[in-house]
Amino acid sequence: MRATRRQRSASRSLSRSRRCLSTDSSSSDGRPPSLVRPDTGQQAMKAAAAATAARGSNKRRSTACYFRQLTDAVVVRVLSHLTSDELCVAGRTCHRWQRLMWHPHLWSSIVIRDRRIDLDRALEVLTNRLMQATPNVCHPSTEITFSCCDRLTDSGLALVAARCPELRQLTIIGCKTISNAAMYQLVTRCDVLERLNVTGCSAVSHLSPPDGDTASLQPGKQIYLTNLDMTDCYLLDDAGLKTIALHCQQLTRLYLRRCTRLTDVGVQHVAMNCCMLREISLCDCHRLTDFTLRELSKLGSNLRYLSMAKCEKVSDVGVEYIARHCAKLRYLNVRGCEAVSDHGLLTLADNCPRLRSLDIGKCDVTDAGVEALAQRCPALRKLSIRACGLVTDKGVILLAYYCRALLQLNIQECNLSADAYKTVKRFCKQCFIEHTNPAFY
């Protein structure tokens, strides 16, 4: 039966071949049938090319079709992950993106980090476009961030103050061309401004009118800032800090890192007027002494975060003031304060049982101080004893045994053995250990 099928197939093929020969024999040019052959190779190549082109066009058509199926809400959600300068570039892609890029939701927060942009001109164009729906007022923008924008001047910031009255948060990092005059206009015209970060704006020294200006802050005038960060504003002095303390009495967070002109007098005004202060950082303010800590201790249970790192004049006396009056303290950083010893740690451990983070790197502490912390501060989550050469395996082992919820431990530049390291790993399962000992790897 199989042979019969094969014979039938062979006969069909033979009949097809004969029909092709009969067609070829009737060629119009009179050549012999054997010389007339159909150009099957070229036809196959053309057919393959056409099929490939069709598949490519179908693929492009299907991809474009998928994108067009996205709703405007989804596209706006995708665009919301771009910074403002990236959003302006994306708006040139197509008419739809050009339309959607001006959705109010996308401009509630303006973020520009490109130092090449002429920010004064960009802000003028941007605010003009955003004010089309609400003339003279740019309602959508409540948060603005400028980072490393060297071309931002007082003119651009004055434009923000005039056109963004609903501004609640402003961050300007590393803009050295901003002056006190622009800051004064900003804080007086943006009544609802709550957070101001001028880190690295070295020309800013206060929030009062510039010298020679007839305007002045009225004695009872309040600026409703709650967060103020003037890190690296090294021109800030006691007079400028006094003005801030008098007119920003609702401050809850104040960061003055590396403001080296400050003394105890300036911090005294802060402690007297900013009674709601919860966090304050005075790292690298070398002129501050224990008197600063005595004044800050008057904040009482409100104070939760205090950083005095690298303030060499701070000693056990200042730490004891804080420990006795700030029982709800959660974070303390006295790294590099070499006059802090076990005596201050014992008082801290007795009075601040809720302490969660402590940095005593390069302090004069021993196993006795670490043991007191371990036994009386069970909620401790982060501890740094970096370069504390008097701390041995005994103190670290006791710490691991009593503080089993420890999450981070810095033992760099400490003379510890592998046994201490293994003990911490055994009792503190989730603890991340920072060290410099190759034997621990």
UniProtKB/TrEMBL annotation:
A Pfam family per the record: F-box-like
Keywords assigned by UniProt, alphabetized: Ubl conjugation pathway
TM stretches of this protein: none
Domain F-box/LRR-repeat protein 15-like leucin rich repeat per the UniProt entry, residue ranges: 236-430
Domain F-box: 74-113
Source organism superkingdom: Eukaryota
UniProt cross-references to SMART domains, sorted A to Z: LRR_CC
Basic residues bias spans: 1-19
InterPro entries: F-box-like_dom_sf (IPR036047), F-box_dom (IPR001810), FBXL15_LRR (IPR057207), Leu-rich_rpt_Cys-con_subtyp (IPR006553), LRR_dom_sf (IPR032675)
Keyword Cell membrane attached: no
Biased composition (Low complexity): 20-34
Name of protein: LOW QUALITY PROTEIN: F-box/LRR-repeat protein 7-like
Classification lineage: Eukaryota, Metazoa, Ecdysozoa, Scalidophora, Priapulida
